[in-house]
Design goal:
Blueprint: H1 3-28, H2 33-43, H3 60-81, H4 84-87, H5 91-114, H6 128-137, H7 143-150, H8 159-171, H9 173-192, H10 199-205, H11 207-238, H12 248-268, H13 273-285, H14 289-317, H15 320-325, H16 327-349, H17 355-363, H18 369-380, H19 384-387, H20 392-417
Helix pairs in contact: 1-2, 2-14, 3-12, 3-13, 3-14, 3-18, 5-6, 5-8, 5-9, 5-16, 6-9, 7-8, 7-20, 9-11, 11-12, 11-13, 12-13, 12-14, 14-18, 16-17, 16-20, 18-20
């Protein structure tokens, strides 16, 4: 083993050990543990000094690849842990909030950011592609962050409200991924065009492309996820010899291997691999009850590892100084996100929830894994990265950090003030 490889293993091993303990500390403080892991990555110098060489501990391209796989594992686990029978009572409002709400959030943010009467991210005239990507990047909520904050008080919350928040945050990520990929596609088309095109005319002209890209990615991803998920659920139900209850280790490896196959096939087929991963997990988790419980236990450690690696990677590849430089824009975006979410929540939930519950849902919009993965992907893109993708990681990190810190600390006091939990 070379000295460089040994150094890499030593540093990464220590970082993961510290991340595990920080995640545990966060749970005790009723904070999302990934917040502390993110801070650890920011405070870690992203260079290795060996034999006069100073290679990066993690390059942007490596972080992008890691992020795509990690989010796939996280969404797969989210699908497995979603109990459709339990969520049935909130399925309609949850789907409205997750699908239509996320789309409206992304589009409204796109329109507002496009019409701001001043320079945006040091660009004289922002493109529709960039503002669509920013809106899509931050339009989805994070299931693990929401659950980690609310789980300690689960017995005191209205169960229907908890089910709604968990359902929404588990389902809305694929929409964000699809819309962000559409923004990247439009951005590449604009960069390859030599003629000056009005951004409004560009968006109108790309309308059919947007509709076709969204529909294709959703359909292919859903189809592959449904086929593989149904097949695996049937195998688990029949308890074939290789994955019967007595072979948990073999079962965990097989499930992870099938997930990697799903991600690879869907990506090569032009679909949404993350949507396919979520649907695959959803079908497996809602199949045979005993097998679903065993699978959830088997895959849980993979999901936690993926989440820790994702947030640690984000902290490593982002320069904290860039976050400080863009802090005014990050604060503006955070305020706009909160206002748009309140509008969307009150618009879509209607009279099915009380005013206090809708206020809490509007404020409970923690962001997490998906914005980080999308931002790293845009920055690592060979064309988009040089144009405007380089600004996405510090923006995503700032937004996620603000949300986890401010909203994570104030959710429970707000719930008590609104009368949603007992004062004791």
């Amino acid at each position: 083993m070379s000295t460089l490889l040994g150094t890499y293993l030593l540093v990464i091993g220590f970082l993961l050990i510290i991340s595990v303990y920080l995640d545990r500390v966060g749970n005790r403080l009723r904070l999302p543990g990934v917040l502390l892991v993110l801070l650890l990555g920011l405070l870690t110098h992203n260079e290795v000094h060996v034999g006069g060489q100073t290679p990066p501990l993690l390059s942007l391209a490596q972080a992008s690849d890691l992020a795509q796989v990690a989010v796939g594992v996280v969404l797969f686990q989210a699908g497995i842990s979603t109990n459709w029978q339990q969520m049935r009572s909130v399925a309609r409002p949850g789907l409205r909030l997750a699908l239509l709400g996320s789309t409206l959030t992304a589009l409204l943010l796109m329109l507002v950011l496009q019409k701001l009467p001043f320079e945006f991210f040091s660009i004289s005239q922002p493109s529709w592609a960039m503002t669509l990507f920013v809106g899509a990047m931050v339009c989805s909520t994070d299931a693990s962050a929401v659950i980690s904050v609310l789980r300690p008080q689960a017995g005191q919350f209205p169960q229907r409200l908890l089910d709604l928040l968990e359902f929404e945050s588990s389902v809305n990520d694929p929409i964000a991924v699809v819309l962000a990929s559409v923004g990247l596609t439009i951005g590449m088309t604009a960069l390859q065009s030599t003629a000056a095109i009005d951004p409004t005319a560009q968006l109108m002209g790309e309308g059919p492309l947007i509709a076709n890209a969204v529909l294709r990615q959703l359909l292919i991803g859903a189809l592959i996820g449904f086929m593989v998920g149904s097949l695996v659920a049937r195998l688990l139900e029949n308890k074939t010899e290789v994955i019967e209850a007595g072979h948990r280790e073999r079962r965990a490896v097989l499930i992870l291997a099938m997930l990697l196959v799903v991600l690879g096939i869907t990506s090569l087929g032009g679909g949404s691999p993350l949507l396919a991963a979520y649907i695959t997990g959803l079908l497996i988790g809602n199949g045979d009850e005993d097998s679903a419980i065993e699978v959830e236990k088997s895959i849980g450690s993979y999901g936690k590892l993926a989440e820790l690696v994702l947030f640690l990677s984000m902290g490593l590849v982002v320069d904290p100084l860039q976050v400080l430089v863009l802090l005014p824009w990050i604060l503006l975006l955070a305020v706009l996100m909160l206002l748009v979410r309140f509008v969307v929540v009150f618009l879509l939930l209607g009279s099915s929830f009380t005013t206090a519950q809708k206020q809490f849902v509007g404020f409970c919009g923690l962001r997490g894994a998906v914005p980080i993965a999308l931002a790293i992907h845009a920055a690592a893109h060979p064309q988009i990265g040089q144009a405007w993708g380089q600004w996405m990681p510090p923006i995503a990190l700032g937004v996620v950090l603000l949300g986890l810190l401010l909203q994570g600390l104030t959710l429970m006091p707000l719930a008590r003030r609104l009368g949603l939990v007992e004062q004791g």
